[in-house]
What does this fold into?
Amino acid sequence: VVLKIEAPAITHKSDAGGVLLNLADAAAVAAGYEQIMAAAAAAQPEADLHGVLVGPMVRGGTEAFVSISRQAPFGLGLMLGAGGIYVELLGEPELALLPLDRPAIAGLLARSPLGRLLGGYRGRPAGDSDTLIETIYQLCRLAGAYAGQIDTIELNPIAVLPAGRGVFVLDALILTTTQP
It folds into this structure.
């Protein structure tokens, strides 16, 4: 399993020592809980620590990131790119203003380095691009419905599993505007 700190003020959990991976038994989870709570308290003493989330360890796939954020004066914009270890290697993300339909999202993905990775680059299994496109489309619809209240939505990383196996959002952040 995976453990992650649950603290609204800690937006980059791994930087604060708030993430532990590959915990195999109850003893490891109990020790991991203590370790994460201590590390998070040391990293951000003022943070309100709500506890620790336990989730499944997702193996395989290609990591992606998707972010929707306010792009004044234009409205909300989408960033789409490779996540995890590929962020710096594969360059700038694709950018587009909302609203976006499925074909537009598919086009962004197709022309990106992430799209090439998901296409089965160098013998890797093809990723589930269709499910990633649908996930991004639904996220865009959500952001559009709450456009006046959304400042940022970030899904990073998203594990894009092999074709037909779906995607798994491993971490998410939502920041709202200060407007009522």
Observations:
- The chain has a mean pLDDT of 92.
- The longest strand covers residues 150-160.
